[in-house]
Amino acid sequence: MIAAISGRALAAAARRAGYRPLVADFFCDTDTVALAERATMLPGDLQGGIDGERIIETLRQLAGDDQPAAIVLGSGFERMTETVDEVSRHFPLAGNSGAAIRRIKDPQLLAADCAELGIPHPEFRWDRPPDPENWVVKTAGGAGGTHIRRAAGEAPATGRYFQHFVPGRSISALFVGDGQTADIVGFSQQWASPAPAAPYRYGGAVRLRRFDRRQAAMIRGWLSGLTRRAGLVGLCSADLIRAPDGYKLIEINPRPGATLDIFDDADAPLIEAHLRAAAGRAYRLPRFVDSMASMVTYAAAPIARFPSIAWPEWTADHQSPGTRLIAGDPVCTIFARGPSADLTRRLIKDQANRLQHQWEGDRT
């Protein structure tokens, strides 16, 4: 069973591993419905978040007479740790407990753990800094980049904190925790798709074919230390910045994340690694000889009725024909594969430009 704001990637991973996924998410788009054994709408909405009071009954109805092997929680639960604990009382949870999520997503505790473990981590504070132009402001437990703003003009608010801005390349490490150590699946470079109200909105990621072994071993050590501190299990990801003076850890996402699609492998399915690690069992990780990228495309302007499109096989998360979109709504996810990260990133952007013309036309 899968519950997430968007469950399509998890459902695809479950199918690749031979499972019959039951999915509850906000969209129930055609991709997800096709992948799922059964699918239902997750209670709540994008503005207010998941409705914790109705979720148990929703999941019970989704399960029906079946006994799910496990429930995997995706995006949307980072700020709902009490709901995570409640779900775990009704279904076998494969993933991090509410306590583990609370610890790793608390900016004060993460900063303290990093300081004790010798992990470079940008300074954070709850009050407004004297030089806000050098800081960003975030929501504790936020995900996806839409909650991040530059701090200039931002006032302190409940649940919001300030983090010193670190210039450099955005790198993500997908890893599997077993409560004691972390095994890195791979590294990816991420990029933003800025919008007026969301300058750090997630744009896409490309799997890096090569990564310095010494740096990888160092980062694995960092993640193993944090895994022990928080008791992290299953698939998680770490956001890092490659700054001029070395890598800095920005935050940990204690769940399968946005890069699942580009790291999954039919010969060593990552959902199987997630389930086995969460249960304290041995698991296998995939090996890669090329690069792969995924990219979210967004509507650049309002669309009164989304057109009918013959979607290429290298797309997913499709908008339905006739849907009314506002500027900034996601349209689809695009995938590309190539021999190197740089070439694959160029390829996926070319594919996006060609595909976007079908719903945007000539905007010149």
UniProtKB/TrEMBL annotation:
Ranges for domain ATP-grasp come to: 231-279
List, alphabetically, the Pfam families matched.
Answer: ATP-grasp_3
Q: List the keywords (alphabetical).
A: ATP-binding, Nucleotide-binding
Endpoints of the signal sequence:
none
Gene Ontology molecular-function annotations: ATP binding; metal ion binding
Quote the InterPro entries the UniProt record gives. ATP-grasp, ATP-grasp_PylC-type, UCP016817_carboligase
Q: What is this protein called?
A: ATP-grasp domain-containing protein
Q: Which organism is it from?
A: Mesorhizobium wenxiniae
